Amino acid sequence: MQNPCVPAIEVADLTQRFSTALAVDRLSLSIPPGMFYGIVGPNGAGKTTILAAVCGLRRPTAGTVRVAGHDLRTAREAALAQLGVMMDGLSLPERLTAAEILRYSAGLRGLDDGWRARAGDLLEILGLDAVPRTLIVEYSTGMRKKIGLALALLHRPRVLVLDEPFEAIDPVSARSIEHVLKQYVDAGGTVVLSSHIMDFVERNCRRVAVVVGGRVLIEGPVERVAGDSTLNERFVELVGADPVRPLEWLS
Amino acid sequence: MTRALFALKLRLFRNGPHDERVFSLVTGLILAALVIAGASSATHGVIHEGWIAVALTVWGGMWLFGPLAQPRHEPSVISHEWLRGYPLRPWRLARALSWTELLGVGPLVTLACLSSLVVLAAPGGAAAVVVAVAAVAAQLYLLVWAGRTVAALAAWLLRTRVGMTLAAVQTAIMLALSFAGWVPVAAWLLPRLGEGDTTLVAPATERLPEPMIDVLAAAPTGWGYSAALAARDGAGTGPVLLPLAALLTVGALLQLCWIALTVGALRRPPRPASPRRLCVPGRDLSLPFVTPEVAAVASRELVTWLRDPARGVELRSAWLTPLLMALVIASSGWSWALPLAGPAVAVFGAMVAINTYALDGTALWQLLTTPGALKADVHGRMAAWALVFGLPSVALAAVLWAVTGSPLGGAAFGGAITAAAVGCAGAPLLALLMPAVGTDARDRIHPGQQAGDPRGGQMTIFPVVLLAAVLPGVVGGPWWGSFLAAVLVAVVVGVIPLFTVGLLQQRGTGLLEAMATRGTAVLRAAARTKS
Fold it and tell me: Which residues form the ABC transporter domain (chain A) (predicted)?
């Protein structure tokens, strides 16, 4: 049972500098357990950098990250044990099939035999059992997202960190992923995801942070952030969009 | 279009990495200068001019066999993938591209080398010099297109599973000849070395045999040489024009062949539209003395060695090379040296396993986000290496020792054990210290794609494992020799993995970033920050 007083993710004064560029600037977030949390922002806002720091894939220049109360710097193994991670645009053990990669992941984590039933369920629900002999390297983008989600969920983590889970995938794949995530949150899990799909964020997330230039511009319940308009309209308003002059040569 | 492509290539030369190109240019020009100096000596009668034919044959051989020795090296600076999207007819594009292939370090240093023909023909007067200049141009034309066609053919073959094996066989032949090609010569000079008799049988050769020079001159690499000498000696129009016409005709045919292969490459989609190869899912691997975490990694590694196209070529060549070396040794009469093939498996196995982290690419993120996975990964890689190369190398040495009864058998057996221990522990360490980052694992479909150039790491681990292999033979029979070897094995297997795990924990995120951005500069910066 999760302690409701301990945030699932707590980021304090996170700073990430790449050479002279400041990607994340003293950013702080506190995400309570059982929350469906969205991080949105324009390209280059620092969303992936924040998530990479949250799941230990990047050492921050400054600041702290705590996962279910465990400091990622001083209690890394305990913090990582709480996390299920799905990163966008990175490889997996590419020469394995879906069943093999789940078995590999279960072995690597030293899971008990219960993983077999969970793996079977995940493969079936996500539609990956239809291609049992296809290697990951041959997967489409949607299939990659699905196997990534299955890997992130296999060990029943308390917190799911998902980087762009709906980027470049078809509506059918998106629907199955969305259903799995809803079930997970309903059962008490915490989801932290980055996305450009405002419609999805508005429909599912309870809280959202709008990140621009490595800083949180606004954070709170989705309804409050969106105000009287849609989240998409509010986002464009917050981030600011330059007027697009008409191109004569296109007419 | 040809002019635009020339301009593009010049810009790529100017703005691209220069290290390898400058090294090739300097080395090539030095070698070319040696050939020219040899030609000058030949005109003064210091050496026989047949040596120039030998030099030109070797030089031409490099054009032909270079692409085979490095089947995954893309010689074209302008990537065909960039050009696929342009609305241009592939034949027209390939024709225009073909002329840009004449621009590069290889053609330049070859031109310098072939100018030795002008030096050879100079005593024949102005007409002979003019013919020699034409011979230089025609010979260069043929060599460039021979090399480019072989490279394109190798790239095409590498898209298939059969090609993967062929590439491995080619590499193995080149390596076996490089490492054991001297054995037949040595066996000829020292036929009774295995019995401890070091009497040297001196060969009686004052000059190159005439039939050998005739053969070299008759080969395509010697046609320019034949034409230049025929012009110098005033042999008439036939002996001069015939080789020149042959050079231009065969060169043009090879150029046409290259254009056809390039058209095929330009028409080919960058990725297969549907899965090409289905595989039978593996089963659980249970290994004695290892944790389930390590067994999981070892199982992943074994499957990856068999299925990853880049690793597949390396695995095959690492195994074929010692076997071909054994074949060369067996045919030379030095059967007492056969057990040395055992340690050779460990040496080549270590060389092909020094880039596994870079080959697995950004899949490293999974290890970095899984508690305890880094230690299991290092140990699992070692276990898989021991199964694929280590134990077989020891077994091969033992079998060949038993079969041949060689006096070197004990040393070879001990050498296989120490080499296997050093290779097993050293390969993952070097894979972390010197990753050669190339195309990420998710984007590599066939071995023809750039998977990083691990030659630096290979050249580093080669002498280390070789030294470990010869150690039992050097320290010899006393008890302390065996004791020393055993201590070495224990230290290597026990201590190095601890260091490797620590390094992975320290540099893992930097390595991941380097692979995600495909830049080792990032890794160097990360290492500097840590130190």
Answer: 9-238
